[in-house]
Amino acid sequence: MGLSLTEKSFLYDSLTLDPPLRPDGRGPHQFRPLEVSTDFLPNSNGSSRVILSGGSECIVSVKTKVVDHTVEQELLVADVDIQGHRDDSPLVTSMSSLLSKLLKQTIDQKKLMLTKRYSFKLYIDVLVLASKSYPISMISFAIFSALKNTWLPKLISNDDDLEVEELPTFHDYDMVKLEADAPLLFTFAIVGDGVFVDPTFEESIVSNNGLLITWYKDKVTSPIRSVGLNNDNIKGFSQHHLEQAFKLIRQYAPHIEKALDASD
Amino acid sequence: MSVQDRRRILGPAEAKPLQFAAITPVRTVENRDDGNGNKSGKESVFISTDLVTNANGSSYLEYMDGTSDQVLVMSSVFGPRPLRGSFQSKASVSIQFKEVTLEHLNTGEIKEICTFLTNVFNAVINVEKYPKSGIDIFIDLIQHSNSNPTEEANIVNILPTCINSITMALVDAGIEIIDLVSAGSKDNSVVAFIRNGHEIVGIWSDDDNVTDISKLIEECKAKYLVNKQTLVQYLK
Amino acid sequence: MTESIDIHPIVFPPEVLARISPDISLQRHLSLETRPCSRGFEEFRDVAINDGNISRYSTNCQNATTNNIIGSSLLRSGKTFVITSITGGIIEETLPANNTEDVGEEELMKLSEDTDRLCENSTIYPVVEVQRGRVGGPTDEEMITSEKLYKTLLHSGILKKTALAVSCGIRRTEEDGSVTTIYSDELLDEEKKINEANNRKWSYVLYAKIQVFSRNGPIYDLCWNSLISALKTVQLPRAFLDERAADLKIAIRTRGRSMTIRETYDILCDPHKSLPLKLNEGELCYGSNYGIIDIEPLAQLAKNDDEMDVDKPTSVLLADIETEAEESSILSTLSLTTNKNGQFKAATIIGGDSKITPEMIKRCIFLSKQRSKDIESKV
């Protein structure tokens, strides 16, 4: 699976050229071509599927249930499953902890409230079918498009039940679109002096370090993390790497958001 | 789903943990003011090494920010010790984090901390020097007085002390590192540096309002330099 | 022609010898009338005990609002230290439905309880963890120590069930919104009646998390001493029900969502008021351990000739086993838990390869009483 020393050194050298040369000819700011399809799971309230060139693939399904929010305060549950990794592996647990914390912070829970007592509870299930590179970026794109295309049943009973325990009733087939904005996460590989967005597996192997930056509602936000994209090539980086990554994200993230938004 | 643990004596299943009623808000507000308004209090660090005798190296750090925040962390380094299995040309570093007394962090957060710290120390430990070896680092958070299960800032408050403590334990164990790592924090962000602040080895930010990254790094760097100076003074 | 072969003796520094051949190292030490830890044969390690400022009731505690630890101890013995933190839970006791009406039933229960004296005693649920630089499930030693602590405390009678009973208070919300909490033992007599209507019973459950660092010898005695000193610091928070919940009979609805209703009736703990845990002070006791080893004549360092014939004892008694050399080569061990008056709570005697004589046991008993007295003065 790994690369030979010569291959690594060739790759590293070409990435540190000026201008850098990525193996698939992309610019530092360019994503791999990606294909998004939504609403393909009839049993889910919202779903999406993201396929990257190179065979990485991720499916997200959003399901909902009505709960009493005076008892159950958690209205969002995100679960990440990555093929080929155990559920308790550091990659899966730390990613799923990061995502669920982030989604809880960003998604407006008021939108899920039905009455003074009842709310929708969202279950966001992520399944990464194939991925060699660090998959969090792809997952966040998939969650973003799934939440943009989530339809919830329309409430027809009164929305103020004065805390009386009365079950809300829904319209038989009318649905309301959940207008929820999810954050987008970007991964950057730091190789030599350069910063590259959306690194492939090969680029990750030779990278000196990685960065994870979040984009939400037209600005850079938390979490910002340094992440190791490999285990044996890690080095420190400098301030200008961070500044460069911020510059790239500010410049290109709005385009990506727009492109994802348009994909219905 | 959960399998019953038959190896530990866990007590009756139907018992519920003690739930303390919320304290009247007046008191909490006072405490908060003490904690945030008066940050200018003297920060102090107590360092001791060689506390854990059966580890190759260990350190114990007490960090007090002069008001009420107190972080007590103990690190122990086991290794370099032989790794089984196929040949590895470099050492493999593993970091385990544990809360000794209070249990306020969930497993996911603990794993996040471990992954982050492993990444930081992968960049700093001279792994080429130790082929076929494993270096296992254990961090025990003994106390974090301001920890609050409902607050987000917990991790950011303890991370700098954890990083300093691991650095001291590695020094105590005589494991080669390229420079003393230390970290500085500012408003919910932690940045770990080496080489007098010219190189960053880790950044962890939970700050929702990162407008000027350069300024943030400069501020963390200032604190890093202070922390590093403390470590150097202890080692002298 | 054969060349003569020179045989050089191999010399190891003491720490290497202790590692590769612990038995020889120990024997050499013994022949010098000392021990690998450089203590005398009957000398114990120094013990320091305090509460570690871990519990929410510690005098210097700063996080009383979020801390759920109700008792703690930090015990240091030589280089080894043990951190014990005690947390609590509340369990509702199942009462027979016709609690007071059926006299015969009650009598029967009393009779059976008299024969089973253990059911008056209560215990704690300990989890022992020894830091050893590995991850994974608990080791045999951790499991055995936990089990032994659990059983010994149960049989010792230090902790009685009555000490863990919750005397439940009631929280009242006055019309102006002010909240008061009333406990039955603070009430005037006429008000007491209100509470008697409420015939649910709870009791506290205690859990101990015992962490051992720098393990350097048998841990059971250290864990026991730490547990007892932590128990002495335990403060049980006062618990109360909300008035609204107490007045209502538990209305469990049968269809599906019954759970949601019961949850709101949860018993809560008072963040300020607490009572010390009542321990059976007379039964408190502390542990110590001993090892007996034969002196191997062959492993002795050479002495002057005139000393050779002096009758030396063939085995020695060592108090407070420490270091790997002692632990791995001493197979005959005694572990005694007693108070200063010699009231034993637990005694484990393992006869290994060395003969344990009655005189030695007597000596151990004497030493353990002394040790217990010493620890008691420090707790």
Automatic annotation (TrEMBL), chain A:
Coarse class of the protein's main subcellular location: cytoplasm
GO BP annotations, alphabetical order: exonucleolytic trimming to generate mature 3'-end of 5.8S rRNA from tricistronic rRNA transcript (SSU-rRNA, 5.8S rRNA, LSU-rRNA); nuclear mRNA surveillance; nuclear polyadenylation-dependent rRNA catabolic process; rRNA catabolic process; TRAMP-dependent tRNA surveillance pathway; U1 snRNA 3'-end processing; U4 snRNA 3'-end processing; U5 snRNA 3'-end processing
Subcellular location: Cytoplasm; Nucleus, Nucleolus
Alphabetized Pfam families for the sequence: RNase_PH (PF01138)
Keyword flag Cytoplasm: yes
One Gene Ontology term, aspect cellular component: nucleolus
UniProt feature coiled coil, ranges: none
InterPro entries, per database record: ExoRNase_PH_dom1 (IPR001247), ExoRNase_PH_dom2_sf (IPR036345), Exosome_comp_Rrp42_subfam (IPR050590), PNPase/RNase_PH_dom_sf (IPR027408), Ribosomal_Su5_D2-typ_SF (IPR020568)
GO molecular function terms noted in the UniProt entry: mRNA 3'-UTR AU-rich region binding
Keywords, in A-Z order: Cytoplasm, Exosome
Domain Exoribonuclease phosphorolytic: 30-152
Family, per entry: Belongs to the RNase PH family.
Protein's name according to its UniProt entry: Ribosomal RNA-processing protein 42
Organism: Kluyveromyces lactis (strain ATCC 8585 / CBS 2359 / DSM 70799 / NBRC 1267 / NRRL Y-1140 / WM37)
From TrEMBL, chain B:
Superkingdom in the source lineage: Eukaryota
Keyword Nucleus appears in the UniProt entry: yes
Gene3D superfamilies, alphabetized: GHMP Kinase, N-terminal domain
GO terms (BP aspect): exonucleolytic trimming to generate mature 3'-end of 5.8S rRNA from tricistronic rRNA transcript (SSU-rRNA, 5.8S rRNA, LSU-rRNA); nuclear mRNA surveillance; poly(A)-dependent snoRNA 3'-end processing; rRNA catabolic process; TRAMP-dependent tRNA surveillance pathway; U4 snRNA 3'-end processing
One Pfam family per UniProt: RNase_PH
One GO location term (cellular component): cytoplasmic exosome (RNase complex)
Localization in the cell: Cytoplasm; Nucleus
SUPFAM superfamilies the UniProt entry points to: Ribosomal protein S5 domain 2-like
GO molecular function: RNA binding
Keyword Nucleus (UniProt): yes
Keywords of the record: Cytoplasm, Exosome, Nucleus, RNA-binding, rRNA processing
Subcellular location, principal: cytoplasm
Residue ranges occupied by any Exoribonuclease phosphorolytic domain in the UniProt entry: 45-176
Family that this chain belongs to: Belongs to the RNase PH family.
Entry protein name: KLLA0F18304p
Organism of this sequence: Kluyveromyces lactis (strain ATCC 8585 / CBS 2359 / DSM 70799 / NBRC 1267 / NRRL Y-1140 / WM37) (Yeast)
Lineage of the species this protein comes from: Eukaryota, Fungi, Dikarya, Ascomycota, Saccharomycotina
From TrEMBL, chain C:
GO CC annotation: cytoplasmic exosome (RNase complex); nuclear exosome (RNase complex); nucleolus
Example of a GO biological process term: rRNA catabolic process
Annotated Exoribonuclease phosphorolytic domain residues: 43-180
Coiled coil location: none
GO molecular function, one term: mRNA 3'-UTR AU-rich region binding
Domain of life: Eukaryota
Primary residence: cytoplasm
Location(s) in or outside the cell: Cytoplasm; Nucleus, Nucleolus
CDD domains: RNase_PH
Pfam families: RNase_PH
Keyword terms: Cytoplasm, Exosome, Nucleus, RNA-binding, rRNA processing
Family: Belongs to the RNase PH family.
Name of this protein: Ribosomal RNA-processing protein 43
